[in-house]
Protein backbone atom coordinates (compact mmCIF):
# COMPACT_ATOMS: atom_id res chain seq x y z
CA UNK A 1 0.00 0.00 0.00
CA UNK A 2 1.25 3.48 -0.86
CA UNK A 3 1.35 5.41 2.40
CA UNK A 4 2.27 8.81 0.91
CA UNK A 5 -0.14 11.16 2.77
CA UNK A 6 -0.28 13.42 -0.30
CA UNK A 7 -2.59 10.77 -1.75
CA UNK A 8 -5.11 11.71 0.94
CA UNK A 9 -5.62 15.10 -0.77
CA UNK A 10 -8.76 15.60 -2.82
CA UNK A 11 -7.99 14.00 -6.15
CA UNK A 12 -9.03 17.14 -8.05
CA UNK A 13 -6.46 19.20 -6.09
CA UNK A 14 -3.42 16.95 -6.46
CA UNK A 15 -2.04 18.88 -9.41
CA UNK A 16 -3.39 22.26 -8.21
CA UNK A 17 -0.71 24.96 -8.29
CA UNK A 18 -2.60 27.58 -6.28
CA UNK A 19 -2.29 31.33 -6.75
CA UNK A 20 1.08 32.63 -7.86
CA UNK A 21 1.56 35.87 -5.94
CA UNK A 22 4.10 38.56 -6.78
CA UNK A 23 5.92 37.70 -3.55
CA UNK A 24 6.14 34.00 -4.31
CA UNK A 25 8.00 34.62 -7.59
CA UNK A 26 11.65 34.67 -6.55
CA UNK A 27 13.69 37.32 -8.42
CA UNK A 28 16.95 39.15 -7.78
CA UNK A 29 15.45 42.62 -7.87
CA UNK A 30 16.52 46.07 -6.75
CA UNK A 31 13.44 48.07 -7.69
CA UNK A 32 10.21 46.21 -7.04
CA UNK A 33 7.43 47.28 -9.37
CA UNK A 34 5.60 43.96 -9.71
CA UNK A 35 2.88 44.00 -7.03
CA UNK A 36 1.04 47.33 -7.40
CA UNK A 37 2.09 48.37 -3.90
CA UNK A 38 2.33 52.06 -2.98
CA UNK A 39 5.64 53.77 -3.73
CA UNK A 40 5.48 55.62 -0.38
CA UNK A 41 4.84 54.54 3.22
CA UNK A 42 1.52 55.30 4.91
CA UNK A 43 1.76 58.27 7.29
CA UNK A 44 0.55 55.85 9.99
CA UNK A 45 3.53 53.57 9.30
CA UNK A 46 6.75 55.46 10.17
CA UNK A 47 9.47 53.49 8.37
CA UNK A 48 7.13 51.74 5.98
CA UNK A 49 7.22 48.36 7.69
CA UNK A 50 3.92 47.30 6.13
CA UNK A 51 4.09 49.03 2.75
CA UNK A 52 4.77 45.82 0.86
CA UNK A 53 3.00 42.48 0.80
CA UNK A 54 4.58 40.10 3.30
CA UNK A 55 6.57 36.95 2.64
CA UNK A 56 3.96 34.13 2.62
CA UNK A 57 6.08 32.02 5.03
CA UNK A 58 8.91 34.11 6.50
CA UNK A 59 11.97 31.86 6.86
CA UNK A 60 12.92 33.28 10.27
CA UNK A 61 9.50 32.45 11.73
CA UNK A 62 9.35 29.05 10.10
CA UNK A 63 12.79 28.14 11.44
CA UNK A 64 12.03 29.45 14.92
CA UNK A 65 8.74 27.54 15.13
CA UNK A 66 10.37 24.39 13.77
CA UNK A 67 13.03 24.55 16.49
CA UNK A 68 10.37 25.19 19.14
CA UNK A 69 8.20 22.28 18.02
CA UNK A 70 10.98 19.84 17.13
CA UNK A 71 10.46 19.41 13.39
CA UNK A 72 12.02 20.51 10.10
CA UNK A 73 10.97 23.93 8.69
CA UNK A 74 9.51 22.28 5.59
CA UNK A 75 7.27 20.09 7.79
CA UNK A 76 5.51 23.18 9.09
CA UNK A 77 3.02 25.69 7.74
CA UNK A 78 2.15 28.81 9.73
CA UNK A 79 -1.16 30.58 9.28
CA UNK A 80 -3.91 32.61 10.89
CA UNK A 81 -4.26 30.57 14.03
CA UNK A 82 -4.81 26.83 14.18
CA UNK A 83 -8.37 27.71 13.14
CA UNK A 84 -7.04 28.36 9.64
CA UNK A 85 -5.15 25.07 9.67
CA UNK A 86 -8.35 23.19 10.54
CA UNK A 87 -10.19 24.86 7.68
CA UNK A 88 -7.32 24.24 5.27
CA UNK A 89 -7.17 20.53 6.14
CA UNK A 90 -10.91 20.08 5.66
CA UNK A 91 -10.91 21.89 2.32
CA UNK A 92 -7.80 20.19 0.97
CA UNK A 93 -8.67 16.62 1.96
CA UNK A 94 -12.46 16.32 1.92
CA UNK A 95 -14.72 16.27 -1.12
CA UNK A 96 -17.88 18.31 -0.43
CA UNK A 97 -21.03 16.24 -0.62
CA UNK A 98 -19.20 12.95 -0.10
CA UNK A 99 -16.40 12.77 2.45
CA UNK A 100 -16.61 13.09 6.21
CA UNK A 101 -14.55 14.07 9.23
CA UNK A 102 -14.63 12.25 12.57
CA UNK A 103 -14.69 14.05 15.91
CA UNK A 104 -14.83 12.89 19.52
CA UNK A 105 -17.43 14.97 21.40
CA UNK A 106 -17.42 16.80 23.68
CA UNK A 107 -14.71 18.59 21.71
CA UNK A 108 -13.66 21.87 20.12
CA UNK A 109 -16.45 23.30 17.96
CA UNK A 110 -14.43 24.48 14.96
CA UNK A 111 -13.92 21.02 13.43
CA UNK A 112 -17.66 20.57 12.83
CA UNK A 113 -18.07 24.24 11.81
CA UNK A 114 -15.41 23.98 9.09
CA UNK A 115 -16.88 20.68 7.88
CA UNK A 116 -20.38 22.15 7.70
CA UNK A 117 -19.18 25.22 5.78
CA UNK A 118 -17.42 22.99 3.28
CA UNK A 119 -20.37 20.62 2.81
CA UNK A 120 -18.68 17.74 4.56
CA UNK A 121 -20.34 15.37 7.04
CA UNK A 122 -19.24 15.10 10.66
CA UNK A 123 -19.26 11.64 12.25
CA UNK A 124 -19.11 11.37 16.01
CA UNK A 125 -17.28 8.86 18.18
CA UNK A 126 -17.97 10.22 21.69
CA UNK A 127 -15.36 10.38 24.45
CA UNK A 128 -16.12 8.08 27.39
CA UNK A 129 -16.61 9.53 30.83
CA UNK A 130 -14.48 7.41 33.18
CA UNK A 131 -13.42 7.77 36.83
CA UNK A 132 -10.07 9.11 35.53
CA UNK A 133 -11.72 11.70 33.30
CA UNK A 134 -12.80 11.68 29.67
CA UNK A 135 -11.00 9.12 27.51
CA UNK A 136 -11.03 8.28 23.83
CA UNK A 137 -12.46 4.95 22.69
CA UNK A 138 -9.85 4.38 19.97
CA UNK A 139 -11.28 1.04 18.82
CA UNK A 140 -14.78 2.48 18.32
CA UNK A 141 -13.27 5.51 16.60
CA UNK A 142 -11.29 3.36 14.15
CA UNK A 143 -14.39 1.23 13.40
CA UNK A 144 -16.38 4.40 12.68
CA UNK A 145 -13.71 5.75 10.34
CA UNK A 146 -13.53 2.49 8.43
CA UNK A 147 -17.32 2.30 8.07
CA UNK A 148 -17.74 5.81 6.65
CA UNK A 149 -15.81 7.83 4.05
CA UNK A 150 -13.82 9.62 6.76
CA UNK A 151 -10.72 11.46 5.51
CA UNK A 152 -9.82 13.38 8.68
CA UNK A 153 -9.92 12.36 12.33
CA UNK A 154 -9.72 15.29 14.75
CA UNK A 155 -8.27 14.42 18.13
CA UNK A 156 -7.86 17.17 20.70
CA UNK A 157 -5.07 16.55 23.23
CA UNK A 158 -5.25 17.97 25.83
CA UNK A 159 -8.96 18.06 25.03
CA UNK A 160 -11.07 21.17 25.01
CA UNK A 161 -13.25 21.04 27.07
CA UNK A 162 -12.36 17.60 28.50
CA UNK A 163 -8.87 18.54 29.73
CA UNK A 164 -7.63 14.99 29.03
CA UNK A 165 -4.33 14.11 27.40
CA UNK A 166 -4.52 11.24 24.90
CA UNK A 167 -1.82 8.52 25.06
CA UNK A 168 0.71 8.74 22.20
CA UNK A 169 0.99 4.96 21.67
CA UNK A 170 -2.76 4.77 20.99
CA UNK A 171 -2.60 7.76 18.63
CA UNK A 172 0.22 6.04 16.75
CA UNK A 173 -1.72 2.76 16.59
CA UNK A 174 -4.80 4.57 15.25
CA UNK A 175 -2.69 6.26 12.56
CA UNK A 176 -1.17 2.89 11.58
CA UNK A 177 -4.59 1.30 11.27
CA UNK A 178 -5.86 4.22 9.12
CA UNK A 179 -2.74 4.47 6.96
CA UNK A 180 -3.62 5.19 3.33
CA UNK A 181 -7.20 5.95 4.34
CA UNK A 182 -7.33 8.98 6.66
CA UNK A 183 -5.18 11.67 8.27
CA UNK A 184 -5.13 11.78 12.08
CA UNK A 185 -5.01 15.41 13.25
CA UNK A 186 -3.85 16.00 16.83
CA UNK A 187 -4.84 19.46 18.02
CA UNK A 188 -2.34 20.41 20.73
CA UNK A 189 -3.52 23.96 21.48
CA UNK A 190 -2.90 23.31 25.21
CA UNK A 191 0.06 20.91 25.19
CA UNK A 192 2.33 23.49 26.86
CA UNK A 193 0.23 23.02 30.02
CA UNK A 194 0.48 19.21 29.94
CA UNK A 195 2.91 16.74 31.39
CA UNK A 196 3.54 14.69 28.29
CA UNK A 197 5.26 14.77 24.93
CA UNK A 198 3.88 16.19 21.69
CA UNK A 199 2.60 13.95 18.90
CA UNK A 200 5.24 15.64 16.70
CA UNK A 201 7.49 12.83 17.96
CA UNK A 202 5.31 10.33 16.04
CA UNK A 203 5.75 11.97 12.62
CA UNK A 204 8.95 10.06 11.89
CA UNK A 205 7.13 6.71 11.93
CA UNK A 206 3.52 7.68 11.09
CA UNK A 207 3.25 9.89 8.02
CA UNK A 208 -0.54 10.24 8.21
CA UNK A 209 -0.45 12.37 11.37
CA UNK A 210 -0.73 16.16 11.45
CA UNK A 211 -0.19 18.19 14.62
CA UNK A 212 -1.71 21.60 15.33
CA UNK A 213 0.11 24.07 17.57
CA UNK A 214 -0.72 27.69 18.37
CA UNK A 215 0.76 30.82 19.91
CA UNK A 216 -2.74 31.78 21.17
CA UNK A 217 -2.79 30.03 24.53
CA UNK A 218 0.42 29.53 26.55
CA UNK A 219 2.28 32.10 24.44
CA UNK A 220 -0.34 34.79 25.15
CA UNK A 221 -0.57 36.00 21.52
CA UNK A 222 -4.21 35.17 20.68
CA UNK A 223 -4.80 38.41 18.76
CA UNK A 224 -1.66 37.93 16.63
CA UNK A 225 -3.44 34.89 15.08
CA UNK A 226 -0.48 32.59 14.54
CA UNK A 227 -0.97 28.86 14.48
CA UNK A 228 0.89 26.02 12.85
CA UNK A 229 0.22 22.69 11.21
CA UNK A 230 3.08 20.19 11.31
CA UNK A 231 3.00 17.18 8.98
CA UNK A 232 4.71 15.35 6.15
CA UNK A 233 6.66 17.87 4.01
CA UNK A 234 4.81 16.92 0.81
CA UNK A 235 1.45 17.41 2.46
CA UNK A 236 2.59 20.76 3.90
CA UNK A 237 3.61 21.97 0.44
CA UNK A 238 0.19 20.95 -0.90
CA UNK A 239 -1.61 22.71 1.97
CA UNK A 240 0.35 25.88 1.28
CA UNK A 241 -0.91 25.87 -2.30
CA UNK A 242 -4.46 25.88 -0.90
CA UNK A 243 -3.76 28.69 1.59
CA UNK A 244 -4.51 32.40 1.06
CA UNK A 245 -1.55 34.20 -0.60
CA UNK A 246 -0.48 36.37 2.38
CA UNK A 247 -1.61 34.68 5.58
CA UNK A 248 0.88 36.25 8.00
CA UNK A 249 0.72 40.02 8.68
CA UNK A 250 4.21 41.47 9.12
CA UNK A 251 3.54 43.10 12.55
CA UNK A 252 2.28 39.76 13.88
CA UNK A 253 5.36 37.93 12.61
CA UNK A 254 7.60 40.51 14.31
CA UNK A 255 5.70 40.12 17.55
CA UNK A 256 5.94 36.33 17.40
CA UNK A 257 9.68 36.43 16.78
CA UNK A 258 10.19 38.76 19.73
CA UNK A 259 8.03 36.56 21.97
CA UNK A 260 9.96 33.43 20.95
CA UNK A 261 13.43 34.86 21.62
CA UNK A 262 15.23 33.12 24.48
CA UNK A 263 14.50 35.48 27.38
CA UNK A 264 10.78 36.07 26.70
CA UNK A 265 10.33 32.34 26.05
CA UNK A 266 11.80 31.56 29.46
CA UNK A 267 9.25 33.92 31.00
CA UNK A 268 6.48 32.14 29.10
CA UNK A 269 7.71 28.80 30.44
CA UNK A 270 7.82 30.08 34.01
CA UNK A 271 4.29 31.48 33.72
CA UNK A 272 3.02 28.23 32.25
CA UNK A 273 4.50 26.34 35.21
CA UNK A 274 2.77 28.77 37.59
CA UNK A 275 -0.53 28.24 35.78
CA UNK A 276 -0.11 24.48 36.15
CA UNK A 277 0.34 24.72 39.91
CA UNK A 278 -2.55 27.21 40.18
CA UNK A 279 -4.67 24.68 38.31
CA UNK A 280 -4.08 22.01 40.95
CA UNK A 281 -4.74 24.49 43.77
CA UNK A 282 -8.00 25.70 42.19
CA UNK A 283 -9.11 22.12 41.45
CA UNK A 284 -8.53 21.10 45.07
CA UNK A 285 -10.44 24.11 46.40
CA UNK A 286 -13.37 23.49 44.04
CA UNK A 287 -13.50 19.78 44.98
CA UNK A 288 -14.01 20.85 48.58
CA UNK A 289 -17.09 22.97 47.82
CA UNK A 290 -20.63 21.75 48.39
CA UNK A 291 -22.62 21.95 45.16
CA UNK A 292 -19.60 20.94 43.07
CA UNK A 293 -20.28 17.48 41.70
CA UNK A 294 -17.04 16.89 39.90
CA UNK A 295 -13.84 18.64 38.88
CA UNK A 296 -12.18 16.82 35.99
CA UNK A 297 -8.45 16.28 35.98
CA UNK A 298 -6.98 18.83 33.55
CA UNK A 299 -3.81 19.01 31.49
CA UNK A 300 -4.84 22.39 30.06
CA UNK A 301 -5.30 25.96 31.30
CA UNK A 302 -8.93 25.48 32.34
CA UNK A 303 -11.04 23.28 34.57
CA UNK A 304 -14.18 21.42 33.58
CA UNK A 305 -16.56 21.43 36.54
CA UNK A 306 -19.95 19.79 37.10
CA UNK A 307 -22.36 21.52 39.49
CA UNK A 308 -25.61 20.59 41.27
CA UNK A 309 -26.88 23.93 39.98
CA UNK A 310 -24.68 25.19 37.13
CA UNK A 311 -27.09 28.05 36.36
CA UNK A 312 -26.70 29.54 39.86
CA UNK A 313 -22.93 29.14 39.70
CA UNK A 314 -22.81 30.82 36.29
CA UNK A 315 -25.14 33.66 37.34
CA UNK A 316 -23.41 34.17 40.69
CA UNK A 317 -20.03 34.51 39.01
CA UNK A 318 -21.50 36.84 36.39
CA UNK A 319 -23.03 39.06 39.11
CA UNK A 320 -19.50 39.79 40.30
CA UNK A 321 -18.28 40.36 36.74
CA UNK A 322 -16.63 36.95 36.28
CA UNK A 323 -17.50 35.33 32.95
CA UNK A 324 -16.91 31.59 32.55
CA UNK A 325 -17.84 29.35 29.64
CA UNK A 326 -21.23 27.69 29.81
CA UNK A 327 -20.70 24.30 28.12
CA UNK A 328 -24.05 22.77 29.10
CA UNK A 329 -25.16 22.52 25.47
CA UNK A 330 -22.27 20.12 24.74
CA UNK A 331 -23.01 16.38 24.73
CA UNK A 332 -22.53 14.70 28.16
CA UNK A 333 -21.99 18.08 29.84
CA UNK A 334 -25.52 19.17 30.80
CA UNK A 335 -24.38 20.38 34.25
CA UNK A 336 -20.90 21.73 33.46
CA UNK A 337 -19.01 24.99 33.19
CA UNK A 338 -15.50 25.51 31.85
CA UNK A 339 -13.43 27.87 33.93
CA UNK A 340 -10.20 29.27 32.44
CA UNK A 341 -7.31 29.76 34.84
CA UNK A 342 -6.79 33.41 35.69
CA UNK A 343 -4.24 35.16 37.85
CA UNK A 344 -3.98 33.78 41.42
CA UNK A 345 -6.17 36.71 42.57
CA UNK A 346 -8.82 35.96 39.95
CA UNK A 347 -8.80 32.27 40.83
CA UNK A 348 -9.22 33.16 44.52
CA UNK A 349 -12.21 35.34 43.56
CA UNK A 350 -13.82 32.40 41.72
CA UNK A 351 -13.49 30.22 44.83
CA UNK A 352 -14.81 33.02 47.03
CA UNK A 353 -17.94 33.56 44.93
CA UNK A 354 -18.66 29.84 44.53
CA UNK A 355 -18.31 29.15 48.26
CA UNK A 356 -20.67 32.05 49.01
CA UNK A 357 -23.22 30.54 46.62
CA UNK A 358 -22.74 27.11 48.24
CA UNK A 359 -23.30 28.58 51.73
CA UNK A 360 -26.45 30.35 50.56
CA UNK A 361 -27.79 27.15 48.96
CA UNK A 362 -26.98 25.28 52.20
CA UNK A 363 -28.99 27.78 54.27
CA UNK A 364 -31.93 27.59 51.86
CA UNK A 365 -32.00 23.79 51.89
C1 LIG B 1 -8.20 27.85 21.28
C2 LIG B 1 -8.18 26.64 20.44
C3 LIG B 1 -7.72 26.66 19.13
C4 LIG B 1 -7.61 27.96 18.40
O1 LIG B 1 -6.37 28.34 18.21
P1 LIG B 1 -5.99 29.58 17.29
O2 LIG B 1 -4.60 29.26 17.00
O3 LIG B 1 -6.19 30.79 18.13
O4 LIG B 1 -6.87 29.59 16.09
C5 LIG B 1 -7.55 25.48 18.44
N1 LIG B 1 -7.89 24.31 19.01
C6 LIG B 1 -8.38 24.26 20.25
C7 LIG B 1 -8.74 22.95 20.82
C8 LIG B 1 -8.55 25.41 20.99
O5 LIG B 1 -9.11 25.33 22.20
UniProtKB/TrEMBL annotation:
It is an enzyme of class 2 (transferase). GO terms for molecular function: histidinol-phosphate transaminase activity; pyridoxal phosphate binding. The modification N6-(pyridoxal phosphate)lysine is found at residue 217. Pathway: Amino-acid biosynthesis; L-histidine biosynthesis; L-histidine from 5-phospho-alpha-D-ribose 1-diphosphate: step 7/9. GO terms for biological process: L-histidine biosynthetic process. Its cofactor is pyridoxal 5'-phosphate. Keywords: Amino-acid biosynthesis, Aminotransferase, Histidine biosynthesis, Pyridoxal phosphate, Transferase. Homodimer. This is Histidinol-phosphate aminotransferase. The gene is hisC.
Amino acid sequence: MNDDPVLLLREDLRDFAGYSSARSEKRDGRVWLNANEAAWPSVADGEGAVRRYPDPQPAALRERLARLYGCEPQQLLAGRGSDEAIDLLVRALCRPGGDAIAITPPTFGMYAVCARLHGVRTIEAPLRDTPDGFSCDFAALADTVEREAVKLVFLCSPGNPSGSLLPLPQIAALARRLRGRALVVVDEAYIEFAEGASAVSLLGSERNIAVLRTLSKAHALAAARIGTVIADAGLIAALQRCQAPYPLPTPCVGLALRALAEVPLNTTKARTATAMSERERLAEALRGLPGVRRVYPSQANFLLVRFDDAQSAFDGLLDTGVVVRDVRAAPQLGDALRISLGTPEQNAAVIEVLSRIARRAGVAA
